């Protein structure tokens, strides 16, 4: 049993390091990628899962690396003067949109465990003279944020990349003020992925293999004692046959496509 736990811990560390390395490469190469750095999927036939931010107040093009799967700020009910926390803040895209909503009296904190991302986000903020946006390097499984200090938590296509989702939900609960809430866009499954996909690191970093069934995802939120859990947006994610064929043989591909399993982008709200 002890050996099994150690192996699971090692796997978790390896997966997190793979994600960190991939995201660091995106910044250094100035790579505009979809679906969390991989062209593995597209939503509703648009060729990317990333939402169009271009008409959203506070949008900063330099901070949009095309890594999201939703637009959580649209559904987060952010108010003037709020303190907002963004988990996996990347180059700062959602933070800058949230800043436009909280106004000068509010505050936005972004947390990311990729040093290059944090540096890029700070650079983007400094260029524009933003004084009420702060970026912290840290692990969202152990947030560098005080208890009961945040009004709203947002996140965009990040939790699906990490194995300890239950721990993250408990961390969100810890940092939220009583009555605070979160709004998270993420990737979930209907049914199960074939093992060949689940074990592929490239697909993991591409958002898909790290996803869990929607029922399990919602159960994790409930287990963390959140109330008023609501899925406010949901859309199908199509993984192209070209990508799937890299991991599945013809029979496995047909079974997956016809078996009722699927990948979805959801945006979910819940209240402390």
Secondary-structure topology with pairs:
Blueprint: H1 2-28, E1 42-43, E2 83-87, H2 93-102, E3 107-112, H3 115-127, E4 133-137, E5 150-156, H4 165-175, E6 176-190, H5 195-198, H6 201-205, E7 212-213, H7 214-223, E8 227-238, H8 241-244, H9 250-258, E9 262-271
Helix pairs in contact: 1-3, 4-7
Describe the structure using short key phrases:
nine-stranded mixed beta sheet, globular, 34% helix, 272 residues, disordered N terminus, alpha/beta, 9 helices, Rossmann fold, single chain
Average predicted local confidence, pLDDT:
83
Helix/strand-derived category reads: alpha/beta
* Estimated helix fraction: 25-40%
- Share of residues in strands: 15-25%
Individual helix count? 9
Kindly provide the radius of gyration, computed on alpha-carbon positions and rounded to a whole number of angstroms.
Answer: 18 Å
Q: CATH homologous superfamily name?
A: Vaccinia Virus protein VP39
* CATH architecture descriptor text: 3-Layer(aba) Sandwich
Low-confidence stretches: 1-9, 31-48
Using the alpha-carbon principal axes, give the shape: globular
User: Given this structure, which CATH class is correct?
Assistant: Alpha Beta
């Amino acid at each position: 049993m002890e050996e099994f736990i150690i192996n699971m811990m090692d796997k978790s560390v390896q997966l997190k390091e793979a994600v960190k390395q991939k995201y660091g490469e995106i910044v250094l190469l100035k790579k505009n990628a979809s679906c969390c750095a991989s062209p593995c999927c597209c939503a509703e036939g648009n060729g990317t899962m990333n939402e169009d931010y271009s008409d959203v107040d506070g949008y900063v093009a330099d901070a949009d690396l095309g890594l999201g799967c939703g637009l959580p700020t649209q559904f987060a009910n952010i108010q003037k003067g709020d303190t907002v926390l963004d988990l996996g803040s990347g180059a700062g895209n959602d933070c800058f949109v949230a800043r436009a909503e909280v106004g000068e009296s509010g505050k936005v904190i972004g947390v990311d465990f990729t040093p290059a991302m944090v540096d890029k986000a700070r650079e983007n903020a400094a260029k524009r003279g933003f004084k009420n946006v702060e970026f912290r390097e840290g692990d969202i499984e152990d947030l560098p944020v005080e208890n009961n200090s945040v009004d709203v938590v947002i996140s965009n296509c990040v939790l699906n990349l990490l194995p300890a989702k239950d721990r993250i939900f408990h961390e969100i609960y810890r940092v939220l003020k009583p009555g605070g809430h979160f709004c998270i866009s993420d990737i979930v499954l209907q049914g199960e992925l074939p093992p060949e996909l689940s074990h592929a690191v490239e697909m993991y970093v591409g958002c898909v293999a790290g996803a869990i069934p929607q029922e399990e995802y919602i159960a994790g939120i409930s287990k963390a004692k959140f109330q008023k859990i609501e899925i406010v947006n949901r859309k199908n994610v199509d993984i192209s046959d070209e990508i799937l064929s890299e991991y599945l043989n013809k029979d496995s591909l047909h079974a997956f496509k016809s078996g009722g399993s699927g990948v979805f982008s959801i945006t979910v709200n819940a209240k402390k």
